Amino acid sequence: MKYFKYTLFTLLKLPAAWLTGVRLTHLDEKGATASIKHRWINQNPYSSMFWAVQGMAAEFPTGILLTDQIRKSGRNISMLVLNNKANFSKKATGRINFTCDQGEEAKRAIDTLIATGEPQTVWLDATGINQDGQRVSTFSFEWTLLLKD
Q: How far apart are CA 15 and CA 22, in angstroms?
């Protein structure tokens, strides 16, 4: 219930992520975690989670860290993924938690944007860990930030 507003946000603004089961499970100034369970709706033909679904789940904690800092700043700031990289190290089955612990980097990028007015980019990483504690994938997203007011 703590993250109900984020679940509602996902349903309304990111319906594909909501439908496949991406859910925010942790958010604070230091980091965020999104969780997803391997199910029929998000599988590939090889009985594991489709890579694009993992990408949605990995992007969510990186983006929510920036979104939270933008909300706290009270400024009109746009954000967009410019680039991404991914590495897959194990078959993704069961529950996967994607964690980004770069809250300080997200805050620093927003603070620099506001102080200078110059567009900023920041790379934020999310690591997917299965229920056995094994890394299944890592994603890096280059976010671009632009002050609009």
A: 10
- The length of the chain in residues reads 149
What pTM value is reported for the model? 0.93
Give the DSSP H/E element, type plus range, for residue 120: strand 120-130
Q: Which CATH number fits domain 4-147: 1.25.40.10, 3.10.129.10, 1.10.10.10, 3.30.450.20?
A: 3.10.129.10
Q: Which residue has the tokens 């033909």?
A: 45
Q: Provide the residue ranges of all domains of the chain, joining segments of one domain with +.
A: 4-147
Tell me if residue 91 falls in helix, strand or coil. coil
At 22-53, the pLDDT tens digits run 999 999 999 999 999 999 999 999 999 999 99
**Separation CA 140–CA 128 (nearest Å):** 11
Question: What number of other Cβ atoms are within 10 A of residue 99's Cβ?
Answer: 19
Residue 147 has pLDDT above 90, yes or no: yes
